[in-house]
Amino acid sequence: MGQSPALGRWLFWGAVAAAVLLLLWLLNDILLPFVVGMVVAYFLDPVVVRLERARLSRTMATTVVTILAVLAAVGIVMAILPPLFGQIQSLITSAPEYIVKAMGRIQPLLEPLRNRLGFDPPSIHDLQAEATQWAGKGLAFAGGLVGAVAERGVAIINLLGLLFITPVVTFYLLRDWEKLMAAIDGTLPLDHADTIRKLARESNAAIAGYMRGQALVCLSLGTFYGIGLTLVGLQFGLVIGLIAGAISFIPFVGTFVGAVMALGMALAQFPPEWMGVVKVAVVFLLGQTLEGNFLSPKLVGDRVGLHPVWIMFALLAGGSLFGFTGVLIAVPVAAVLGVIVRHFVARYRESDLYRGSSNG
């Protein structure tokens, strides 16, 4: 018997998807500059469109936006990275000492619970030895990872790619964005083109709503936490604040990690002046209030349709399969898959498979 047309189409698109995944896996080491360029172009396309409405040509608008974006990136890097690297180096060096101090402050508070459970209290010497051992393991792991990557030449390739290839990719994608979209639209299968366009519009709304909105949320929180923790006098406040803001796109994780680091540092630094610890806690409470009541509702909203657990799973899966490149594309892919799944669930509920033959 011959193959049905529907089965043939499914086999064809399944083979295309498998080929794309295989290609991504094989070229994973060199994809980072191109993926970053695509992400940046996606973010900047609305700005180019607005300049076009101001009667600039697409090429001129793209040139202006690309130059301003590169200058802004260079300026931010030059202003932030030197003090940031200095604080990171000092934080890594001093981490065992601060961990011991923080545990020394916390231990008396846990004394009743320890007595009830019958645990022996660890000595300060044991805490210091344990902290030093874990810090050494962490530095050794990081050093080994950097060395392994550098030996393969991936680090140099990606660094040069980010510096030189990404701006070029961003420029050409921005300039030819409409042509690229038209070319893709022209290759859609005719009998499903309208459905695919509808799904693409919904996917774009979900991706834009989350990616652009969440990027602004992370930038705002990182700035707020960095400045706030520095103003209350917390050592390494800039580093901790920027880390908390940068990973705020992972639901609950950014806040938890940032609060633990900040409060741990505050416990090691401020007591017996407990007001400093209170000030650090207030900074995070204000940050969470700002995010929950203003930033996320205004910048991200409820139209995204991405559950926090689905986002965390997508980030872990993308990172496991494709490294940092996978993390960058994880949320867009999750958004598209979410739209497709909701579409097929709706189709299923309209079909006889769900309704049954008696309800037809």
UniProtKB/TrEMBL annotation:
Coiled coil: none annotated. The keyword Transmembrane applies. The chain crosses the membrane at residues 7-25, 31-49, 61-81, 154-174, 215-236, 242-267, 274-290, 310-341. Keywords: Membrane, Transmembrane, Transmembrane helix. It is found in: Membrane. It is a multi-pass membrane protein. It holds the Pfam family AI-2E_transport. InterPro entries: AI-2E-like (IPR002549). Belongs to the autoinducer-2 exporter (AI-2E) (TC 2.A.86) family. This is AI-2E family transporter. It comes from Reyranella aquatilis.
